[in-house]
Predict the 3D structure of the following.
Amino acid sequence: MIESSDTQTHHDRHGRYPQATTVEDFRHNLAAVQARIDRACQRAGRDPASVRLLPVSKTKPEASLRLAYAAGCRMLGENKVQEAHQKWQVMQDLTDLQWSVIGHLQTNKAKLVARFASEFQALDSLRVAEALDRRLQIEGRSLDVFVQVNTSDEASKYGLSPEDVPAFLQALPAFSALRVRGLMTLALFSSEAERVRRCFVLLRNLRDRLRQGAPVGIGLDELSMGMSGDFEIAIEEGATVVRVGQAIFGARATPDSHYWPTAPEQ
């Protein structure tokens, strides 16, 4: 991928994104984010079609989510399972709207995820894998999952340490309702682009090393990395999914740390 570039993080924009209040606002913001994706792909010699944009709607009210849907969004990312489940319940009239749970999951909430989510991006323990699989079997469903890796070595972040991922992957075929698609990470929250880039490079290199020895049925094609402040750098380093909230929906009323201590900007 790109050895070095002048790509910058945009974490200093936190709180500066204007609120999207109309369908036209959402169309404009989605187009602006897509243009940033396209430029990053061009720098990296990649096809923009190889990057999926996941709009992150956490903390935003139902009315905003409906505007985003009207602007073309068909999958939304949510951090808090109960918040996501409540939104799913009141928006079931939108039959083709899918939900991606991208935040930490406690085993006692696995039954909710099994009921409504199409994707879970924060798998980091066998206890959660077992609980999800059991509930999915009851529901007669299967679920796309990403294994979360802590690439920043910060104690405040969830995810497996890179050295624990190989053994974890070897254990996952036991859970037949889980369809492993790839790896996910949260980069260091920093205005220093190269420190952020190192997290993405680590995840890509880890995935590349593990691909050959991955168990049958365990997919490692996807890399979910990059958010509103740093997704261009993630794309330059191989991201196939970028999780973008504020650049689409507008700044949140309070910083993420109010809702989830130590959480980075999405």
User: Anything to note?
Assistant: The radius of gyration is 17 Å. The beta strands are 52-55, 75-78, 98-101, 119-123, 143-148, 178-184, 222-224, 241-244.
